[in-house]
Amino acid sequence: MDTVPLDEQVPQPGQWPVDPQEDIPISEDNIWVDGCFDFSHHGHAGAMLQARRLGKALYVGIHSDQAILENKGPTVMSLDERVSAVDACRWATQSVPHAPYVTYLPWVSHYGCKYVVHGDDITSDSDGNDCYRFVKAAGRFKVVKRTPGISTTDLVGRMLLCTKNHFIKSVKGALSGEEGSGSPEERKASAADLVQRIRDYATDESGHAPGPKVWTWTASGMAKIDHQVKEAGAFETLVDGKGPKPGQRVVYVDGGFDLFSSGHIEFLRKVMEVEEAEGQKRGWFDPEQKEKRLKEYNEDYAPAYIVAGIHDDDVINHWKGLNYPIMNIFERGLCVLQCRYIHAVVFSAPFTPSRPYLEALPLGVPDVVYHGPTTFIPLTYDPYTAPKEMGIFQEVDHHAFQHVNAGEIVGRILKSREAYEARQRAKLEKSVNEDLVKAQEEASA
């Protein structure tokens, strides 16, 4: 009987978790990244963006629940949920579930990847050994900068400790360097880094060319929270990305998108799916229509252009209380921005999309406003009265990940609080050893 753990075995043709089943020729254009990808936070997306910029195709290995449990501790999200998050990232070409926790060259080479990319931190297995020791020894390892200030460990800590110090009081204040900690110079530098990160995430599938548009919306606090105050507000362009193309329907969705989960991702995917079905009815996918788009615009494109409005931290806290949102508006915004199912983002969107707001949107009144069934917030009124009266509202049906929202995820953590606190302690202990290994590597470099 084979005693080698499943994720350490080299699959035979026909047994690889995803196609192709035959080896791909190794190319410097194919890049490999791997990880747990527990929670869809923007640090994961940042790693994938940097990796994608180093090649032309990005293969993303995702460890199994069992492998993570043995090497790190219990996962918060199931493998299916984690795979859906990776699949939704604009820069991911192919997700590879059940990838080994220790990165083995046969796996990387099978998918034609010359290089493995990872952040500038050390990751060790249950024995304390560097997970990337084999690819490093082969000279097939590249390092990118780890996104500061965000990790699964950080987010779990916020849930366990019920902290609020991650909240952003004013989007414009943070972007201008007026809000935040440190000296005026440090705040300015932090704001510049934040603006650049938003610009980086607002790129296309290559990670280099312009992608989503980004706006901020300014209005009174009551217009953002309350349904009785209706204001057009003022939109400002933060990133002038690619706008809608001829024939595309402009779609508006909104939400908190806290802990950007499979529930949010599947909702956005369903919106795109419904719009593709609508496009099918109007001949969007007919060969002659596709040929016409390719001839006139040198590219084919989707039948819908999806704009996502994201609520401020204080708006979400008003409705959900406690220390929600767990992610601040920029963390949530970057999660939405990297998603392949959206084309534009509005920071500080109102909880209730009123007629004046919808009419003031930079692209004009949307063709349709979508929303899914709300299960986490007990509402005392209907926020979508205006789009319903305007005849542009449509609800997305229930889906497989309907129950997965911020409340569900926090519940998972609290239900297994002891296990996750043990995971936090183990992570801290491992990080001390990993820092020592990193220091030794830097000293010998």
From TrEMBL:
Pathway: Phospholipid metabolism; phosphatidylethanolamine biosynthesis; phosphatidylethanolamine from ethanolamine: step 2/3; Lipid metabolism
GO terms classed as biological process: phosphatidylethanolamine biosynthetic process
Region (Disordered): 1-21
Documented EC number(s): 2.7.7.14
Family matches, as Pfam families: CTP_transf_like
Xref: SUPFAM superfamilies: Nucleotidylyl transferase
Domain of life: Eukaryota
Keywords: Lipid biosynthesis, Lipid metabolism, Nucleotidyltransferase, Phospholipid biosynthesis, Phospholipid metabolism, Transferase
Gene Ontology CC entries for this record: cytoplasm
Keyword Lipid biosynthesis: yes
Enzyme class: transferase
GO molecular function per UniProt: ethanolamine-phosphate cytidylyltransferase activity
Residue ranges constituting the Cytidyltransferase-like domain according to the UniProt record: 33-156
NCBIfam families: cyt_tran_rel
PANTHER family from the UniProt entry: ETHANOLAMINE-PHOSPHATE CYTIDYLYLTRANSFERASE (PTHR45780)
Family: Belongs to the cytidylyltransferase family.
Protein name (record): ethanolamine-phosphate cytidylyltransferase
